[in-house]
Structures are given as C-alpha cells and as structure tokens.
Write a structure and sequence with these properties.
Blueprint: H1 10-19, E1 24-33, E2 36-41, E3 44-49, E4 67-71, E5 78-81, E6 87-91, E7 99-104, E8 108-114, H2 121-133, E9 137-143, H3 151-161, E10 166-169, H4 179-182, E11 190-195, H5 201-209, E12 234-237, E13 243-246, E14 254-255, H6 259-265, H7 267-273, H8 290-296, H9 302-319
Parallel strand pairs: 8-9, 8-11, 9-10, 11-13
Antiparallel strand pairs: 1-2, 1-4, 2-3, 4-5, 6-7, 6-14, 12-13
C-alpha cells in the first residue's frame, strides 16, 4: 500500500512540499484519540501528538480523513494540516451555533438508510444538502432490502428527492445488489458512510472490508433504531484500494451549509421557482408563486416544498443568528 492508494495525489504532494517540514513526513489521520492522531504513512501505521495549536488555513484541529505534516522525531508531532479538498460539516449539538467537522477529503458519501423504520425522505434531503456543501458525491444506499416488501417502490421514492443521485436498495447479508457500493470505490477514492444508528453502516463497512472490523448490534424492535455501536470516526483501508470512513449514528443533523448547497440538493424546486412572479418569492403567501401552483397541479410534492422552505429558513438562521422564524 502506498499513500497514493488512499488519495495522496500530486496536489497533496505539492501542498506538503510547500510546508517545507524538514525532517518530516506526511500521513493521513485514521482516528483521533484525545491529543493523539492515529496515522497511516508510507512506512505503515504511526501515532503523532496533536498540539493545542496546529497550522492550517482555517482554525481547528485535525479530524479523521485529514492529510497532515508531522515532524520526524522520537515523538512525532502534527505540525500542519494540509488544505482540505472536502469537508462533511454539521451544526454542532447544543445551543451555541458552531460548526463540527465530521471528516474530510471524502470523494463519495454513502448515505445509508434502512428500509424499515429508518426510511425518511426529509432526513435524506438534509444529508444531500450536507454532501453538496461539502463537495462530495452522494450515493444513497437503502439497506435491509431483504426485509422490505417492496424495495423498488422505496427506491423510487428516494430517487424522487435525490435528483440525479444513484440510489440502490441493497442487503449485503441477503446478497442483494452487493456490488452497488463497490462500483463507487477503488484506488485513490475515499468514501464515508453516514446515517442513523442501526441503519447498517458498520455492517456495510464490514462487508467491504471482508472482515468483522466494526462491532454490530441488533436494532431496537419498537423503532428499528440502533444502540450507537460506533462511537468514533475511523478511516480504514479497503482491500480493493481506497479507504472508507465509518461514522457514529447522528441523533441531530443540524445544517451548517451555504445557500448554494440547498440549490444543488433541490434542483427540481429551483427550476420551478424560476416561474415565480417575484424574484424574492418566499413561496408562502405571495401571489404568482410557481411552486405553490405546481403543488396544486400535482407537479410538486407538498412535503418536499415544505422541507425546502424549512431548510432555507434554517440556513438563514445560521447566517443570521438573531433572525427568528
């Protein structure tokens, strides 16, 4: 295995060389444990201490998926974080508005939803907005297809909101569409799996790894939710080349994104809105609203319009915390 196999291309090489860390080495963060970064390097696995202040363009400490420069000493220290190509960011839990970077330098974001009580189109729209803002290619994996009476119908529903995004109904335990996620992986590609606890992320990762790397527990019978078996974000090297990041199930999925991400996630709504009478139409009570007219004619689902408006307001509040409503 070389670093190129997990995405260390010419652009990252140039960024590392520009730091002039001598003597030093490059590595990719596979996991953060307190002030220790677990790394994969050209020489294998390594551990480096993360100081309180690390050089990078934006403030913040390294996270899973980062490429870092380290000092070559008896106790390696992370001296800098290389510029990130992509970031998966959400609004951190709590009352104070601040971003939380979950993982970085991800090419493909597997949005995992179980075809049981976990299936939720409105949550899917949130994940697609995060993927668009983070500059990642989303792929929707509807797991547990073997337990669903009509997985094709569910997949069609998901495609209705995931415009132009690949959607697959899979079941790696029952042998249904098991090659679907594999088609999006390969040398130099990093994927990340996100979704609710119990959706099947760790089962998917174990299948792709070819071993029971991640612990898996049964879901609760009354709501089909899991027990948050995965408690940290970890990058793992795939046998076929590339890497995958497993993430804990998210109880809260607050948006921390720009307005352009919403436009990418709702291209059908944006296209229809061009017919509104007013350019600043908020699609609620204004006359000549093309979106409300489309709902009345059956050309747009009312729940999708409501979701678009609600997410837009959420992003406005993020940009202007004093705004209400």
């Amino acid at each position: 295995m070389t670093l190129a196999d997990i995405g260390f291309d010419a652009e990252f090489e140039q960024a590392f060389a520009a730091l002039a860390v001598a003597p030093g080495f490059a590595g990719r963060v596979t996991r953060i444990d307190a002030d220790q970064a677990q790394l994969v390097t050209d020489s294998g696995e390594a551990t480096a201490r993360v100081p309180r202040r690390v050089v990078r363009v934006e403030p913040g400490r390294p996270v899973t998926g980062d490429w870092v420069a380290c000092s070559a000493s008896a106790e390696p220290v992370v001296s800098a974080v290389l510029p990130r190509r992509s970031e998966l960011v959400r609004r951190a839990a709590g009352r104070r508005a601040r971003p939380q970077v979950l993982c970085t330098n991800v090419d493909v974001l597997f949005v995992v939803m179980g075809l049981d009580g976990d299936f939720n189109l409105r949550r899917l729209e949130r994940y697609l907005t995060l993927a668009a803002d983070g500059r990642m290619k989303p792929v929707v994996l509807l797991t547990k297809a073997g337990l669903c009476a009509d997985p094709a119908a569910r997949a069609a529903e998901a495609r209705g909101v995931a415009c132009g995004v690949d959607v697959y109904a899979i079941d790696v335990l029952a042998g249904i569409e098991t090659d679907a996620p594999v088609r999006h992986l390969g040398p130099g590609i990093t994927a990340a799996a996100v979704g609710s606890s119990g959706a099947g992320k760790s089962t998917l990762v174990n299948f792709l790894m070819g071993s029971d790397r991640m612990r898996v527990d049964a879901v609760r019978a009354h709501d089909d939710r899991g027990k948050h078996t995965t408690t940290h974000r970890e990058l793992m090297l795939l046998p076929q080349g590339g890497a995958i990041i497993d993430t804990p199930g998210m109880r809260e999925l607050g948006l921390w994104a720009e307005g352009e991400a919403l436009e990418t996630a709702f291209p059908d709504v944006i296209a229809l809105s061009s017919g509104c009478r007013f350019r600043d139409c908020r699609h609620q009570t204004e006359p000549g609203c093309a979106l409300r007219a489309a709902v009345q004619k059956g050309g747009l689902d009312a729940a999708r319009l409501a979701s678009y408006i609600a997410l837009g307001k959420e992003l406005e509040r993020r940009s202007n915390p004093t705004r209400r409503g």
